[in-house]
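hey
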């Protein structure tokens, strides 16, 4: 590992110059491919060596590689991120979703995403610095700064959108999706979550990107369900695993049929098991990243997240209402798709309202909660719940998740009697919550 670290660190000195020269001189496709393949082999070797250290819980040994371990790790990380950046730059803007997924899958197969995940984690950085918290956090801060400055969040969110589009294609054509690509998306989202939950720089870059915030791509899966009016649950193809590649052990689920399970218990099991499908899990993880970014920089006013989630709940609930022309009830597949959309969007909204037990009360905290609650009332989400009650009674009778979510809102952490509250700071929030509760009951 010491040799690999030294080699990669020396490469970094020339990497920026070489990369700019190659990319700016209009190289042929073969030149770019040759460069990427050569870089890929070198980084795969380093990543495998790193993975072996991690599997033996010996990452701390990196702090003894040289007297300037922090500097060397900075340069090593810069080289890694530059390699990933060039890999995605090689993709044409018109690359198909499958090509984008193949690109990120190659990073997962080569253990590159495992290496990136360690650098994106504050704990991983501290471990690499031999347990020195100050130096570890300095390394993590440097990683997040480079991620934001080099626009790595662009390819990360591009991958999420590509996964959603490819999932829709797979379902439409009754094809299968590679489990390696699904595993790579999970790994990439872990990296993004680590950074956006802990770094204000990354969270700000995700939310305030121009011309349209990148965070909008993290809600794309739910929007695609609405526009396609389908459940989108692709069959995932099991594959032999390579050493060190963490693949999900969840079984592949067939594309849902249009027939309603015969019994209440069968429907409940069907709904529960369906949520372990790759599309549902990745959509949920993407929403978690969006929520973490908003909370990290207190960007509750951003329309791309809070208003976007409210809009998804509203439109999804309207999609299950029969057309006034023929009054034909939407298919059970459509009902389940829109029901799951509502559940995920509401859960994300409620996460934005949650408060840590050790978080002190403040006017700013209450103001952020008010923003979310006001949008819930503005979009009349209680009416959306009423539509579900009226048009999906069979689903709601079998699954209590929606009522549990509403119960979380009606008795949120910030109104819990276990904590001492200031009446003057929470009264308006409680009034908004009470209004939602009463409307939902009606």
């Amino acid at each position: 590992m010491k040799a690999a670290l030294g080699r990669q660190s020396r490469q970094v000195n020339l990497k920026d110059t070489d990369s700019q020269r190659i990319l700016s001189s209009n190289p042929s496709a073969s030149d770019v491919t040759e460069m990427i393949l050569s870089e890929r082999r070198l980084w795969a070797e380093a990543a495998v060596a790193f993975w072996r250290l991690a599997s033996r819980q010996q990452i701390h040994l990196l702090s003894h590689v040289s007297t300037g371990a922090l500097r060397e790790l900075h340069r090593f990380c810069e080289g890694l991120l530059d390699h990933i950046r060039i890999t995605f730059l090689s993709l044409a803007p018109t690359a198909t979703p499958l090509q984008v997924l193949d690109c990120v899958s190659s990073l997962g197969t080569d253990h590159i995403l495992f290496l990136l995940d360690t650098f994106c984690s504050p704990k991983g950085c501290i471990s690499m610095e031999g347990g020195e918290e100050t130096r570890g956090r300095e390394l993590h801060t440097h990683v997040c700064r480079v991620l934001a400055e080099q626009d790595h969040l662009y390819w990360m969110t591009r991958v999420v959108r590509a996964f959603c589009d490819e999932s829709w294609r797979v379902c439409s054509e009754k094809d299968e999706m590679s489990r390696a690509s699904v595993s790579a998306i999970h790994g990439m989202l872990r990296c993004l979550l680590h950074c956006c939950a802990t770094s204000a720089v990354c969270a700000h870059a995700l939310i305030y990107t121009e011309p349209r915030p990148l965070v909008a791509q993290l809600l794309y899966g739910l929007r695609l369900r609405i526009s396609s009016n389908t459940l989108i649950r692709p069959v995932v193809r099991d594959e032999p695993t390579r050493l060190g590649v963490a693949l999900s052990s969840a079984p592949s689920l067939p594309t849902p049929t249009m027939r309603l399970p015969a019994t209440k218990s069968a429907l409940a099991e069907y709904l529960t098991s369906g949520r372990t499908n790759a599309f549902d899990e990745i959509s949920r993880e993407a929403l978690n990243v969006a929520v973490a970014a908003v909370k990290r920089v207190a960007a509750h006013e951003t329309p791309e997240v809070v208003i976007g989630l409210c809009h998804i709940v509203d439109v999804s609930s309207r999609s299950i209402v029969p057309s006034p022309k023929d009054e034909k009830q939407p298919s059970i597949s459509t009902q389940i798709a829109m029901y799951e959309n509502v559940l995920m969007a509401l859960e994300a909204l409620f996460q934005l309202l949650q408060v840590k037990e050790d978080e002190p009360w403040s006017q700013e905290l209450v103001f952020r909660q008010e923003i979310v609650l006001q949008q819930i009332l503005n979009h009349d989400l209680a009416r959306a719940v009423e539509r579900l009650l009226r048009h999906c009674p069979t689903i709601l009778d079998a699954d209590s998740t929606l009522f549990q979510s509403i119960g979380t809102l009606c008795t949120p952490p910030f109104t819990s009697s276990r904590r001492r509250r200031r009446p003057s700071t929470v009264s308006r929030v409680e009034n908004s919550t009470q209004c939602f509760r009463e409307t939902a009951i009606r």
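Residues 79 and 285 are 28 Å apart (CA to CA). The longest strand covers residues 176-178.
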